[in-house]
Specification:
heterodimer, A: mainly beta, 6-stranded mixed beta sheet, 5-stranded antiparallel beta sheet, B: 7-stranded mixed beta sheet, 4-stranded antiparallel beta sheet
Chain lengths: 112, 114
């Protein structure tokens, strides 16, 4: 079975600072990897996905993630945090079909 | 176009009762999946349906069941509710249910079991 580990349940950054959210996965096959964002009382919104086309994936709202096979990592970054980025972020690996295996999530706090 | 819609948005039940949650996929989407998100955890896969057939099932007891209708909408049923069933239940849809498709999530149904 595949699994996802998100390091850090809470991350706090200042507005304008770099955002780095960590994700490591385990997969026996080349993975499909995803980052989702969840705002309070809302569903999940796809930020970006990796499907082996390119190791650096650009997503919405200025986020990007780099797939590193040697490190089994798919960390999410954004050069400059904005107050509106405060939310919970989930990394996920697709096991088959529509079955995603999610990490436990990282709550991002942005300080003014 | 409307996104994935779920009803009701909130629900309160007592232990032992039964609950039915409903989901309408995005128009044109034929695959629906259900996820359970317990507070403080990531969503966990419950079921996937495609063309009214079960395509996948997560590690949930038989108290959980689902079905998909000819119009591709779906119901999730949970019998004999336990306190631990309290969670946000998310529905997601995709075109054909394939591994490389984008999954669209609804806003969820918040179930509280007292």
């Amino acid at each position: 079975a595949q699994s996802v580990t998100q390091l850090g349940s809470h991350v706090s950054v200042s507005e304008g600072a770099l955002v780095l959210l960590r994700c490591n996965y385990s997969s026996s096959v080349p993975p499909y990897l995803f980052w989702y964002v969840q705002y309070p009382n809302q569903g999940l919104q796809l930020l970006l996905k990796y499907t082996s086309a390119a190791t650096l994936v650009k997503g919405i709202n200025g986020f990007e993630a780099e797939f590193k096979k040697s490190e089994t990592s798919f960390h999410l970054t954004k050069p400059s945090a904005h107050m509106s980025d405060a939310a919970e972020y989930f990394c996920a690996v697709r096991e088959y079909g529509n079955k995603l295996v999610f990490g436990a999530g990282t709550i991002l706090r942005v300080k003014s | 176009d409307a996104g994935v819609t779920q009803s009701p948005t909130h629900l309160i039940k007592t232990r032992g009762q039964h609950v039915t949650l409903r989901c309408s996929p995005i128009s044109g989407h034929k695959s629906v999946s259900w996820y359970q998100q317990v507070l403080g955890q990531g969503p966990q896969f419950i079921f996937q349906y495609y063309e009214k057939e079960e395509r996948g099932r997560g590690n949930f007891p038989d108290r959980f069941s689902a079905r998909q209708f000819p119009n591709y909408s779906s119901e999730l049923n949970v019998n004999a509710l336990l306190l631990g069933d309290s969670a946000l239940y998310l529905c997601a849809s995709s075109l054909e249910g394939g591994s490389n498709e984008k999954l669209f999530f609804g806003s969820g149904t918040q179930l509280s079991v007292l």
